[in-house]
Amino acid sequence: MKNLVLLGSTGSIGTSTLKVADDLPDRIRIVGLAAGNNASLLLEQTRRFEPEAISLNDPAGAEELRKLFGVGPRVLAGAEGLLELATLPSADIVLIAIVGTAGLRPALAAIRAGKDIAVASKEILVMAGEIVMREAQKHGVRVLAVDSEHSAIFQCLDGKPVASVRRLWLTASGGPFRDAAEWPQERFGEITVERALKHPSWVMGRKITIDSATLFNKGLEMIEARWLFGIGMDRVEVVVHPQSVVHSMVEFVDGSVLAQLSTPDMCLPIQYALTYPDRVPSERVQTDFAKLGALTFETPDVERFPALRLARRAGEVGGTLPAVLNAANEVAVEAFCEGKLSFPQISETVARVMDAHPVTADPSLDEILAADAWARAEAGRG
Predict the structure, then answer these.
(1) Which of 299, 316, 362 is nearest to 223 (CA)?
(2) DSSP bridge partners of 4
């Protein structure tokens, strides 16, 4: 039995995590839940799983829940609530599924409190991968991947030394605009928010779905992989795989390639992270290879999708540049969703902000957060 704190319980990863907990009541006990502002769903989840403590980002909403529960779970609020949940004494593992930078301090707090963390929020490792992995090693805790791609690599590596790896291959669906014949670069200005949100393989939140359309999602995953697996950016590659059945691959120095395959379903990597090192039976994911028929692979087009080039540059330069890439992209995606930027201007904004940034090498957490704030302001100037 593992006691789990789930930060981001009402989002797509959070709700999938609770499905896994439902499937495995003898393996996973929910001791803490945190949500953004969806008080009604948090209320429903709390009644179902009976955690020790819950947290809502909105203090007024948290006060309403406090009155409603009376002598029920402790009700916390805001950033302090996240920190308290992340360090809950009864917790064994903290799964962080908060979009944006809000998960960074709770992740570090959990690590320093001796908790394993499962990471679904890319920003944690993109912004502060070096700090997070160093702290995890210092405190003897695991940083477990929840992204399907990094989970796949983790499973394929299975403890093998980094020296045995030639390359890590992250697979990308290619998003809704993969077909260059249908969507040549000169048509990218026509792309609407509604069209960009129609992902061909996955059902996800708004931000990550737009990132999948621009391929910034894959760029961020490249930087994540660099830190999670302690491997140079020059050995992290991306290949487009529209069927999303091969979740990622590891190419070894002798030319052998190991891949992890399954029908797309986030419950599988979530379950693997929460039950690691065991493999626990589940009927949720079924893969019929005869029905799949064919698996295809393509080289990504970095001219149409410059996010990959920008992410590689950020990962190679390091320092505060990955945080700047991430922050500028968040602001640009929001502006696109609000109709203030066109689809191509997302990448253009990120490139402009990166070019303007004086990089700090080996930054502290405060310097990373300062670079994040600077990049948001710079991106917002449009």
Answers:
(1) 316
(2) 30, 93
Position 168, amino acid: L
Is residue 35 a contact partner of residue 43, using CB atoms and an 8 Å limit? no
Amino acid at 163: A
Alpha-carbon separation of residue 120 from 145, 149, 171, 258, 367 (angstroms): 7, 11, 17, 23, 23
Contact criterion met (CB below 8 Å) for 10 and 16 = no
Single-letter code of the amino acid located at 286: Q
Quote the pLDDT of residue 197: 93
Per domain, the residue ranges of the chain are 2-145, 162-263+298-317
Give all strands (DSSP E) within the chain, no chain letters: 2-7, 28-35, 53-56, 74-77, 93-96, 116-119, 143-145, 165-172, 236-240, 246-252, 257-261
Beta bridge partners of 96: 7, 119
d(CA 263, CA 218): 19
pLDDT in the model for residue 99: 80
Considering only the C-alpha atoms of the chain, give the largest distance between any 2 of them, rounded to a whole number of Å.
63
Closest listed residue to residue 7, CA positions, set 42, 40, 50: 42
Pairing relation of β-strands 165-172 and 246-252? antiparallel
The candidate with the shortest Cα–Cα distance to 238, out of 308, 322, 156, is: 308
pLDDT at 317: 97
State which amino acid sits at residue 119. V
H helix intervals, 148-306 = 148-157, 193-196, 206-214, 216-228, 267-275, 289-292
The amino acid at residue 138 is K
Beta-sheet pairing, 246-252 with 257-261 = antiparallel
Report the C-alpha gap between 72 and 105 in whole angstroms: 27
Record: fold of 2-145: Rossmann fold (3.40.50)
Which residue stretches of the chain have pLDDT < 70? 202-203
